[in-house]
Amino acid sequence: MEAVIQTPYHESLCAPITTGHHVADILIANIRLKELMATELRRSGFQIIELSQTNGATVHLPLDHWIDVGALCLLAREDSGTCLYDSDGDIVAWKGCDEADQCTRKLVTEANCFRMRYPWEILQVNSAVLAALPKNDIQGAVSPLAEINGVVHVGKGTRILPGVVIEGNVAIGENCRIGPNCYIRGNTSIGDNCTIGNAVEIKNSLIAHHTSVAHLSYVGDSILGSYINLGPVTILSNTRHDGKNHTCVINGEEMDTGLQKLGAFLGDGVRTGPNTVIQPGIRIGNARTTSAGAIVTSDMM
C-alpha cells in the first residue's frame, strides 16, 4: 500500500499557529505532525511516497486530517477514483486521482476523525495523541518532592522541581525547567528548552519550543508558539460566565467553536506584560506585545 501526505489548501485558517510555518511542522505531543502521521501509516503497512510518484493505487491523505489508519486501509482496497468521507460529510482522503473532486466513487467511514481547519482543532488532535501514550518515559530529573500521576514523558536534561504536580497525559521536552510549585494537567505538551515558572498552572495546552511562562500565570486550553515570554501573572482565560460555547473570529467571521473551555492562540515571539489578561478565543499574531495590566478583548493579528 502506498500513501502520499499532502499539504492542505487553507493553512492560513490556523493562523497564528501557521503564520511562518506549514501545518506539517506543528508540534503534536512534541512530534512534527507530518512525521507523526508518516510513522502511524508505516506501522500499518503503508509506504510513504512523494507526490511526483503517485499512481492509481496511491492513497492521498491531507495533513489537516487525523483519522484511524484502519479506515485508510479500507480505502486502499477500493478501486481507483474512490473518495473517503467522514460521518459529517467532510473529505478525509482519496485514492488514485490527483484531486478529490476527480473521484467518481464514495466511501463513508464512521471512524473517529479530527479535522484541523481551525486552531482549536489542533488542540483536539494533540489531546488524542497524548491520550494514546502507552507508558511513562522519564529521562529528566524529577524531585522527590514532586508528584507525578498518569502517563508522563519527560525529556533529557529537564528538571522537575519541588512542589510540582503533574497529572498526565503530559509530554515535556528536553532541557526544560518546570517549577517549583507548578500544576500541569489535562493532555498538555511542552516543547524543548521551555521554562514554566513558580506557581504556574498549565491545563490542556500545547506549548512549542523555547517558550517561557513566568510565575503565577495560568494557561488553559491554549496554544503557544515558540520563543514566547508570558510575563508574571499572565492569565489566558478559558471560561465564560454564561456557560455558552466560545467563539473565535476567523477571516472576519465570528465562529462557534463548539467548546465550553477554550483559551487563546499565540504566535511565535509574543511577549506579555505583567498582569495581562487574555480573554477566551483570542488570537495574537507573531511578535506582538502587551503592556503591564493589559486586558485583551479582541484579536491582535
Number of domains: 2
The largest sheet, given as strand count, sense and whether it forms a barrel, is:
8 strands, parallel
CATH class of the largest domain: Mainly Beta
Question: Widest sheet: strand order?
Answer: 11-14-17-20-23-26-31-34
Number of helices: 3
Unreliable parts: none
Average pLDDT score: 94
Query: How far apart, in Å, are the first and last alpha carbons?
Result: 42 Å
Strand-residue fraction? 25-35%
Outline of this structure?
With 301 residues, the protein is mainly beta. It has helices at residues 33-43, 69-76, 119-131, and strands spanning 2-6, 27-28, 31-32, 47-48, 58-62, 65-67, 82-85, 91-95, 105-108, 113-115, 137-138, 141-142, 147-149, 152-154, 159-160, 165-167, 170-172, 177-178, 183-185, 188-190, 195-196, 201-203, 206-207, 212-213, 218-220, 223-224, 229-230, 235-236, 247-250, 253-256, 265-266, 271-272, 277-278, 283-284, 295-296.
Descriptive overview:
This protein has 301 residues and is mainly beta. The chain folds into two domains: 2-117, Spore Coat Polysaccharide Biosynthesis Protein SpsA, Chain A (Alpha-Beta Complex), CATH 3.90.550; 137-296, 3 Solenoid (UDP N-Acetylglucosamine Acyltransferase, domain 1), CATH 2.160.10. Helix content is 11%, strand content 32%. It has helices at 33-43, 69-76, 119-131; strands at 2-6, 27-28, 31-32, 47-48, 58-62, 65-67, 82-85, 91-95, 105-108, 113-115, 137-138, 141-142, 147-149, 152-154, 159-160, 165-167, 170-172, 177-178, 183-185, 188-190, 195-196, 201-203, 206-207, 212-213, 218-220, 223-224, 229-230, 235-236, 247-250, 253-256, 265-266, 271-272, 277-278, 283-284, 295-296. The strands form seven sheets. An eight-stranded parallel β-sheet has the order 11-14-17-20-23-26-31-34. Strands 13-16-19-22-25-28-33-35 form an eight-stranded parallel β-sheet, with no helix packed on it. The chain has a seven-stranded parallel β-sheet with strand order 12-15-18-21-24-27-32, with no helix packed on it. A hairpin with a 2-residue loop joins strand 2 and strand 3 (31-32). The protein is globular and about 60 Å long. 43% of the residues are buried.
